[in-house]
Design goal:
The chain is mainly beta and 178 residues long.
């Protein structure tokens, strides 16, 4: 058993799994699996089982670096190692990371699929995006808070001025598939 597995008293192993739902300009949706790094698991355990302090809000951020996510990445290292997109003239127009507004927790999952975040691309030519992350700080390039999730896209994405990138994120607990 690895640290990415939880033991559930009634049913054995449970796999916490998240996935990003990405569309561009209301086009077809692509689903991309995420990595929940050690910092995210520690947060879930602290808040859920040790009465740790809960983060009040969560935000989505885009990155452009050729970074392959690891368990060691944290909110403090994310912006630098993944090359977070922070420009509003060669990136996206919104002044902060985009809010992740989840619905109710039900059936062992929670998501913002009913209120997905939208990034409006701003550039004079194109912007390459290689991934997305979920953090507890709204500050573009910020190093405070918790990194809950991160995903590298299977292929680089090239976006153009005015493109609308819509992102949903769902996390759920499901029976572990060995």
């Amino acid at each position: 058993m690895s640290k990415n597995d939880f033991i559930h008293a009634d049913s054995g192993l449970v796999d916490p799994h998240g996935e990003y739902y990405i569309r561009v300009n209301d086009g077809p949706e692509e689903i991309i699996s995420n990595r929940i790094p050690t910092q995210g698991f520690n947060y879930l355990l602290s808040v859920g089982l040790k009465a740790g302090a809960a983060q009040p809000s969560w935000y989505l951020a885009l990155f452009s670096g050729g970074y392959t996510p690891t368990d060691e990445v944290t909110a403090a290292t994310f912006a630098n190692v993944a090359t977070e997109i922070v420009s509003s003239t060669n990136g996206y127009t919104e002044t902060t990371r985009q809010a992740w507004t989840p619905g109710d927790v039900a059936n062992s999952e929670v998501s913002n699929l009913a209120t997905e975040a939208v990034f409006t691309i701003a550039t004079t030519s194109s912007v390459t995006v290689r991934g997305v992350a979920l953090l507890s700080s709204p500050v573009k390039g910020g190093t405070d808070g918790v990194l809950m999730s991160i995903a590298r896209f299977p292929q680089d994405r090239t976006y153009y001025d005015g493109d609308k990138v819509t992102i949903g994120y769902r996390v759920r607990m499901r029976p572990f598939q060995a």
